[in-house]
């Protein structure tokens, strides 16, 4: 339990970069990535926001509507002004792609855009591969900087490699990007506060400088990050057998959630609900943005002891074969 260096465990960071940038990434070989261990995904976002404020003091951050609520707190406390961009379309319960692209085009050149790499929280709505290509194209054309929050790698498709698709598209298009990675969900290491912040730079020299500045930001905040989670992650990911076992478990977890989506929708349809519940299976990841109103959510809580956020977001991780029928029945009752 000795101190780690300011930038955290080198071995953990190395393995973590491979997950995001690719096992055989040239960018890693060229040492173009400045990366430090971070206090899980939240800490990675906050460190980046502080970095943004220090080195681009007049910049803003564009955040999707809606987003994980803490994004607003993080950039607010880092004193970076916030703008929003269209993301979710309430009628279709899918992506408001045209409006999102318009917002990218209309933002001042060189703006910062926060993107959820996969399994968008709270909506469960991700762009398709084609849409990502277009998003990448427009972000590049405007000289914007894309910052990916990747809190759920593996949770969307069950394969961390597939879930990194958006990032890989941006790399193909030669962007400079930032990534916040977290092991809270995909390794179940919530309380260990283990994650990584990386910034893809122009060259090795710039990466050394950026890493040094990230460490300068970390030092007066927490000196160095915690060691236990870093040891767990680096032990698993650097051992081929353990890594294989982890990948298998991630897939089991994601497939279970996908199965629960099918079961929830199926049960609602079986009950004769006249509403469309297709979005339950179209959406992906840990959350289902059900479309339930705050009043309907209150009824679920008060009459059925079913708990979800008042924006109608169901944590699919809490849905099981044992309670899915009860849940469907209650949803049917409050939406009649
Ligand atoms: N980003 C998103 C989109 C999240 O949903 C979460 C957790 O809910 C996080 C980041 C951060 O989680 P942690 O700090 O536990 O890694």
CATH superfamily of the largest domain: Type I PLP-dependent aspartate aminotransferase-like (Major domain)
Total individual domains: 2
Placed side by side, the strands forming the largest sheet appear as: 1-9-8-7-6-2-3
Radius of gyration: 20 Å
Helix content: 40-55%
TL;DR?
Residues 2-331 form the Aminotransferase class I/classII large domain. This is Aspartate aminotransferase. The protein has 336 residues and is an alpha/beta fold.
List keywords for this structure.
336 residues; alpha/beta; Aspartate Aminotransferase, domain 2; Aspartate Aminotransferase, domain 1; 2 domains; seven-stranded mixed sheet; two-stranded antiparallel ribbon; 11 strands; globular; binds pyridoxal-5'-phosphate; PyrdxlP-dep_Trfase_major; pyridoxal phosphate binding
List the helices and strands and how they pair.
Blueprint: H1 10-21, H2 26-29, E1 33-39, H3 40-55, E2 61-65, H4 69-77, E3 82-86, E4 88-89, E5 94-95, H5 97-106, E6 112-116, H6 129-141, E7 145-150, H7 160-163, H8 165-172, E8 177-182, E9 194-200, H9 204-222, H10 228-237, H11 240-270, H12 278-282, E10 287-289, H13 294-304, E11 313-315, H14 324-335
Parallel strand pairs: 2-3, 2-6, 6-7, 7-8
Antiparallel strand pairs: 1-9, 4-5, 8-9, 10-11
Helix pairs in contact: 1-10, 3-4, 3-9, 5-6, 6-8, 11-14, 13-14
Bound molecules: pyridoxal-5'-phosphate.
């Amino acid at each position: 339990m000795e101190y780690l260096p300011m930038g955290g465990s080198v071995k953990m960071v190395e393995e973590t970069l491979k997950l995001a940038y690719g096992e055989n990434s040239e960018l890693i070989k060229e040492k173009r990535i400045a990366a430090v261990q971070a206090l899980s995904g939240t800490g990675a976002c906050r460190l980046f926001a502080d970095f943004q404020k220090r080195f681009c003091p007049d910049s803003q951050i564009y955040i999707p509507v809606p987003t994980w609520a803490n994004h607003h707190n993080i950039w607010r406390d880092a004193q970076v002004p916030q703008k929003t961009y269209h993301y979710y379309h309430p009628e279709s319960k899918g992506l408001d792609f045209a409006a999102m692209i318009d917002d990218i085009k209309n933002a001042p050149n060189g703006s910062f855009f926060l993107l959820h790499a996969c399994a968008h929280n709270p909506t469960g709505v991700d762009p398709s591969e084609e849409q990502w290509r277009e998003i990448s194209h427009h972000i590049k054309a405007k000289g914007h900087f894309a910052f990916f929050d990747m809190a759920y790698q593996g949770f969307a498709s069950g394969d961390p490699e597939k879930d990194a698709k958006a990032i890989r598209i941006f790399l193909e298009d030669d962007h400079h990007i930032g990534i916040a990675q977290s092991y809270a969900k995909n390794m179940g290491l919530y309380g260990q506060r283990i994650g990584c912040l990386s910034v893809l730079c122009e060259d090795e020299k710039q990466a050394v400088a950026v890493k040094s500045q990230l460490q300068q930001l970390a030092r007066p905040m927490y000196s160095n990050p915690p060691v236990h989670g870093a040891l767990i992650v680096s032990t698993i990911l650097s051992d081929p057998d353990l890594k294989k076992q982890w990948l298998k478990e991630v897939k089991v977890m994601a497939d279970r959630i996908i199965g629960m989506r099918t079961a929830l929708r199926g049960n609602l349809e079986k009950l004769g609900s006249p509403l469309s519940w297709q979005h339950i299976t179209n959406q992906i990841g840990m959350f289902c943005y059900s479309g339930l109103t705050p009043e309907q959510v209150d009824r679920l809580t008060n009459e059925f002891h079913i708990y979800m956020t008042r924006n109608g977001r169901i944590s699919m991780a809490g849905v099981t074969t044992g309670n899915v029928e009860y849940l469907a029945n209650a949803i049917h009752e409050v939406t009649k």
